Amino acid sequence: MVKKKLNNPIYYREIVDRISQLSENSPKKWGKMNVSQMLRHCDLVLQVALKKIELPPINFIFQTIGIVTKIEMYVFNNGIPRNMPTFRKLIVNFECDFDESKTNLLKTLDEFRAACDYKSLPDHHRLFGNMTEKDWQFLEYKHLDHHLKQFNV
User: What average pLDDT does range 59-76 have in this prediction?
Assistant: First the structure.
């Protein structure tokens, strides 16, 4: 099975096209966020990779779970589990403007792609531990794919 990564132009375009299919009224299949909140959340998660948001330290047990989850996702190429806990800084439980959230996500996604090209992504993540460029590209694709499936695109 192919391991899709955001640095691949085909999979990058796929994600952009799927984001473009969303509307303010896109129905969700699960979760608490509406589509505007989901777009903002995905934007914030990408900002972690761009070093614009720093996540707080977590205890050893959660980091161990994160590292095991990262390995499991690589080995089985599976998706992110539904309703997985997230860092407080990345929770979006406030109203968001759909157009602004969508525009900002696409802009940040483009910045992420540039960071991939320049190989300037961080070498560590608070939850997933040591990270390579390929780790970031794979896990960010998986995260976006997870939330786009949440809204049927």
Answer: 91
Helix (H, G, I), strand (E, B) or coil at 55: coil
- Provide the 3-class DSSP secondary structure of residue 130: strand
Rounded Cα distance between 134 and 114, Å, is 14
Q: Name which of 114, 105, 113 is nearest 148 in CA terms.
A: 105
Neighbours of 104 (CB within 10 A): 19
Q: How far is CA 46 from CA 61, 75, 137, in A?
A: 24, 23, 10
Q: What is the pLDDT of residue 88?
A: 94
User: Do the beta carbons of residue 24 and residue 36 sit within 8 Å?
Assistant: yes
How many residues make up the chain in this entry? 153
Cβ neighbours, 10 Å, residue 46: 25
Tokens of 75: 């080995």
Copy the structure tokens of residue 82. 């539904």
pTM for this model (two decimals): 0.95
DSSP label at 30?
Answer: S
Residue found under tokens 């806990």 = 85
Cα angle for residues 103, 123, 17 (degrees, 5° grid): 25
